[in-house]
Structure prediction request, 115 residues.
Amino acid sequence: QEQLVQSGGGFVQPGGSLRLSCATSRSILSTYVMSWWRQVPGKERERVALMISNGGTQYADPVKGRFTISRDNAKNTMYLQMNSLKPEDTAVYYCNARWETSEYWGQGTQVTVSS
Prediction:
């Protein structure tokens, strides 16, 4: 049974916006540290945004001011709103949930930013 199910992503021109979604369970969303990561071929997966249970957030420097991590508790879903997208944002994006020794990953979704 998948714990994290992603949707969204796709192709967008530079300067455009996309929203990624990560559906999960109420218990995971309310307890786990939730985050978004991205990976390009030949490079390590990097974390771009993080949200803890009290709503506190952190962002990687390359996405600060452009990306927003959020959650909708009624829908048991986490989001990543990506604005002012750049070609260097092109990657496979993954959502992640982590708490103590438990960790789950979404299936990944491709985001391509190109003119």
In short: The CA atoms of residues 29 and 42 lie 31 Å apart. The two ends are 38 Å apart (CA to CA). The longest helix spans residues 26-31.
